[in-house]
Amino acid sequence: xxxxxxxxxxLFIALVVAFLAGWAHHRRxxxxxxxxxxxxxxxxxxxSKSSRSHQExxxxxxxxxxxxxYLGQVLGDIDRKGQAAIINEESTRIRSLRIHQQGLFAxxxxxxxxxxxxxxxxxxxxxxxxxxxxxxFATGLVGFAAPSIRVYDALVNGKAYLxxxxxxxxPFPTGMNDKNTTLQSLHFLGELQRxxxxxxxxxxxxxxxxxxxxxxxxxxxxxxxxxxxVEPESGIKASAELSFEAIEGVSVxxxxxxxxxxxxxxxxxxxxxxxxxxxxxxxxxxxVPTYMEAGWINAEKGEQLYFKGHxxxxxxxxxxxxxxxx
Length: 326
Prior knowledge:
The chain has helices spanning 2-44, 50-54, 65-74, 181-197; strands spanning 94-107, 111-122, 128-135, 148-156, 159-166, 170-171, 214-217, 224-230, 237-247, 250-261, 270-283, 286-298, 302-318. By secondary structure, it is an alpha+beta fold. The protein has a domain at 48-129 and 180-318. The longest helix is centred in the N-terminal third of the chain and has 43 residues, at 2-44.
């Protein structure tokens, strides 16, 4: 009888383990399918025309001089005089970008954790999908790995998403699905500002001919400009202040500041946010930063960085190949 009872226990445990394994496999598959669906929707949606929908189309001459210098070099130095760097809709338009990242992410502005991520960024429409993996906590123990968090952060077809989970299996509550329309609008604004502040990665969207963003000069600040976008579905507007810097004779975006919703319990107060761009190089003819940092600006403690990320791979999709600039 003892042998029979032990066999029943082992069989029961085996069944439970098999059930949990099957359930976990199903949940991970659902996670991956949701991500694939978001990316497909992002890449298949109709091109956005933010500026055309909400304001008069800017001309090249209306751009701040520092913006003209930057745009005149960013897509392969098309116009070396910086006078008529007009984007050719058939040869220089970026359709999308998929990047691979690795770096450090600070939870609660304290413990730095290693992360890896992929991100797809829309360049014909306003949106992105970020899929990241990082440990749940830092163990400090050699040979022992903490369970991992998978999180996707996305803006697709006028909807914002933020879904963290344990192993891509058990989602964590975030309050982002709250029916509070004010909360939803602030969450959406934060995601829209993320796309805007990372637009240096898909710089064809920054040309006036793309009709996706608008530029505004800052009086007495020749190396800075205001960049804005209006999401066509919701009409929500996001703006950021960009600083430019000349590196070896080439003008690049070095810093961006905006007021961004800060997640705190179920409230999203607007707080100053800062991002930095470093190590520019040409990828497929496009001048892009390969290292980024981001953080919040605290009135008492100053800048508190929470993100340090290297981009290890760029995969651009163009309307057609870029012109030869060699």
